[in-house]
């Protein structure tokens, strides 16, 4: 099976910019956020279970998941997050494993904002943290998503702390400069990962 590297980082850290660069080098990228949307798509068993557990109010008129309503409910209801994760996480994990098994590049990349929190790091041999100061996280995320600073802070608080991610990651890439600066750091790491995959 292809060697797998996990890539993570907080909201606004630049995970997508990094994973896009790896994809452009021909590396198979499996995105946990994309998989998470796929498993709750209309017609999927997880969506039926979400409706049965939380009520039809969590669905839009077309039968799709109302993400805003679900997000708000989770933030304000004790145990709701655990209930939702019990429905979705096993299915997400199984689909990630299936997609990684089909990787044909020298190594594969699993991109997940909750790589450590959901134990998805167990599926990889090394981890990359795209790291950024928290003040810059807030600025970038609010400019990109149009969310309020308060809502972004709530997301940050629900994620693992920056210092703990730094301690747990195999490789830390600081992304507080330009896109070209990020790419140059990734190019060096990519070469190391290629060398690793050739020697294992």
Overall residue-averaged pLDDT value: 91
Q: What proportion strand?
A: 5-15%
Quaternary status of these chains?
single chain
Main sheet properties: 5 strands, parallel
| Fraction of residues in H or I helices | 55-70%
How many domain modules?
Answer: 2
Q: Strands of the largest sheet, in order across it?
A: 2-3-1-4-5
Proper CATH architecture of the largest domain: 3-Layer(aba) Sandwich
The CATH topology annotation of the largest domain reads as Rossmann fold
Could you give the order of the helices and strands? EHEHHHHEEHHHEH
General form: globular
Kindly describe this structure.
This protein is α/β, with parallel strands linked by helices and 200 residues long. The protein is 55% helix and 12% strand. The chain has a five-stranded parallel sheet with strand order 2-3-1-4-5, sandwiched between helices. α1 crosses α9, α2 crosses α5 (80-101) and α3 packs antiparallel against α5. The longest helix is centred in the middle third of the chain and has 22 residues, at 80-101.
Pick out its properties.
200 residues, alpha/beta, Rossmann fold, 5-stranded parallel beta sheet, 9 helices, 5 strands, globular
């Amino acid at each position: 099976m292809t060697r797998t590297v996990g890539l993570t980082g907080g909201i606004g850290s630049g995970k997508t910019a990094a994973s896009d660069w790896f994809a452009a080098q021909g590396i198979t990228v499996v995105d946990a956020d994309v998989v998470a949307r796929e498993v709750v798509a209309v017609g999927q068993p997880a969506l039926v279970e979400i409706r049965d557990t939380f009520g039809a109010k969590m669905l839009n008129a077309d039968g799709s998941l109302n993400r805003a309503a679900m997000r708000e409910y989770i933030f304000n209801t004790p145990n709701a997050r655990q209930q939702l994760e019990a429905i979705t996480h096993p299915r997400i994990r199984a689909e990630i494993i299936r997609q990684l098994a089909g990787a044909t590049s020298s190594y594969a990349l699993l991109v997940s904002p909750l790589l450590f929190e959901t134990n998805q790091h167990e599926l990889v041999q090394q981890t990359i943290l795209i790291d950024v100061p928290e003040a810059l996280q807030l600025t970038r995320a609010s400019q990109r998503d149009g969310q309020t600073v308060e809502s972004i802070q709530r997301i940050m608080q629900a994620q693992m702390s920056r210092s703990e991610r730094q301690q747990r990651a195999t490789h830390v890439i600081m992304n507080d400069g330009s896109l070209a600066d990020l790419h140059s750091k990734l190019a060096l790491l990519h070469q190391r990962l290629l060398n690793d995959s050739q020697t294992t």
